[in-house]
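Database export, one record per block. Field names are fixed; values are copied verbatim from the stored entry.
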Amino acid sequence: MYCRRFLALPAVLDGLQNGKAQKFEYTLEFCWKTIKVFLRQQEGIDEASPKKIIKAFYLAGHLADCYVLRNSRDIVP
């Protein structure tokens, strides 16, 4: 009962929402930095900004491969 009241407080809800946003931010930053290293090692591409890195990843044809791999896991009865 007290737990539900505590979680319903605006300050607590705001903190939980901020935590979700921060997790997304960290995950996105980790993702583009990993792609940056991959492109530098595999393709010799060295870009600086996240937007340019994602675009280079797509233009190199790797984003389409990820889409195919993700969809190949789908099991249709």
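Remark 1: The chain has a mean pLDDT of 78.
Remark 2: The helical segments are 2-8, 10-42, 50-59, 62-72.
End of record.
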